[in-house]
Amino acid sequence: MALNGFLDFFQKGKTFRPKKKFAQGTIRYSLYKQAQASLNSGINLRAAVKLPQGEDLNDWIAVHVVDFFNRINLIYGTISEYCTEQTCPTMSGGPRFEYLWADGDKFKKPTPLPAREYISHLMEWIEMQINNQDLFPCSSDRPFPRNFSSHCSKILARLHRVFVHVYIHHFQNVVTIAAEAHVNTCYKHFYYFVKEFDLVSRKELEPLNEMASRICKDPPI
Questions:
Q1: Where is the signal peptide (predicted)?
Q2: Can you say which residues are annotated as belonging to the binding site for Zn(2+)?
């Protein structure tokens, strides 16, 4: 599959929540366009995730967190009509993995929820993080918080759970709409990024280990 087809797929279609964008003229917008150009060039995805020389790591992570949020929103949006309380009464990835929702606010204790409700709360929670200027400052004159990387790790680990649910419970729905190549490329991009910067634990990645070993074969650089 050509990567420009992958980008076309993610630039249209329905999203589960409104797409977040970077303001033109900002450093993060420039980094976002640079990352998109790398994907569009068809280069090795392991290379595409590497921090560009001279750029700030927090800016690079922020760009990718927002971009993955948008892409995974779209992936889930394409199959969300098949993800109901009847078909998916729990947020799970097969019989071995079930995810409970807690946000320290409405859900102070880990709570079992239908997958669709879990993902709705998750995307709302991530949107709040992204829009929080203390966590994701819009301008370069405001510093990132000291624990920015750990915040992003939590966001990315939870986004990975959406991949787990889609792959294990809805992959046939993805195949039906001929989107499997696009979803696989998005997962590879996500996987290489979180591995490059050690942002998601092995435990969280475990449910898709076998699949990752099959599709994440871009040569080391």
A1: none
A2: 83, 88, 165, 170
